Amino acid sequence: MVKIGFFEEVIAASEATTSAALAKANELRSKCNDMASLEKAAKSTAGWQWRSAPNIKRNDFSGGDLDAGESTRNLVKWAYSKASIGDVSPAAYDYQNTNAQCVNKYVVAGLQRITPKGLQSIDDVRDAVTLKVRNEKKAAVIIKKIGSQTDMAAVASMFQSEVKEAGQATLNAPFIPGLGSEPKVVAAAWKTALNATSKPIIGDNGVFMVQPVTKTPAQPITPEMIPNLRRQVEGQTVQQASQAFFQALRKNASIKDNRFDFF
């Protein structure tokens, strides 16, 4: 008879490793008095990464690559109560690995921008707009390269891709397995005739072409189905109305959120 035993041991950073990392974080912090020097040092120092956490609100406990927890909360409170634009945090914030029960990273923070209430400025939306415009330009280049080609295998070969089958796409839930939510692609699939190839479609995650091979027509509504359908519509309407009512109360209420002063 053979007996096999499995032993599991969590591999965690030792106290010496953690102390060395903290010393390195404090050394980096001591050399950086503003955001510009912090960014330059982080990008040029081995083992450090430069990350951005935009649109953090005063009551947030997480944001960007910052895990939810007390460290992020303390960082946010520093940014909102004591920091000015360009300031660097007075200390490094430690982040725990909950599985290994040890510190797995230190964060030295800086305040890059303060966004006032109201309409966002060009600088506030520049990154998002740049990404959108860049994707539109890429899509235009891809569509031009495809041209009048309707052979999907040939198009896939142009871009080192492959033709895949995607089922269970409905107009009520435009989610395509493996692609995510692509309402334009689903709509084009239903609009395109069976076994015909659609024109290139600019979706949320890329440029697509579809060729419907099967379509299941909608089930005809019979008189017996009407009461059940009415209940479904009424339930959805009641839920939407309650949500809209709550949002209207929040919008019109003159209540100031002071949780930041206590938590």
Description:
The model has no long low-confidence stretch (mean pLDDT 87). The protein is mainly α and 263 residues long. The longest helix has 27 residues, at 226-252. The chain has seven helices and six strands; from the N terminus they run αααββααββαββα. The termini are far apart. Strands 1-2 form a two-stranded antiparallel sheet. The chain has a two-stranded antiparallel sheet with strand order 3-4. The protein is extended. β3 and β4 (180-181) form a beta hairpin.
Give me the secondary-structure topology.
Layout: H1 15-31, H2 35-44, H3 70-81, E1 93-97, E2 102-107, H4 122-146, H5 152-158, E3 175-176, E4 180-181, H6 183-191, E5 201-202, E6 207-208, H7 226-252
Antiparallel strand pairs: 1-2, 3-4, 5-6
Q: What is the makeup of the main sheet?
A: 2 strands, antiparallel
Which range does the strand content fall in? Answer: 5-15%
Shape: extended
Count of strand segments = 6
SS-based structural class? Answer: mainly alpha
Number of helices: 7
Mean pLDDT across all residues, rounded?
A: 87
Give the CA-CA distance, first to last residue: 60 Å
SSE order: HHHEEHHEEHEEH
User: What share of residues is helical?
Assistant: 40-55%
The neighbouring-strand order within the major sheet is: 1-2
Q: Calculate Rg over CA atoms.
A: 27 Å
Provide the low-confidence segments as ranges.
Answer: none
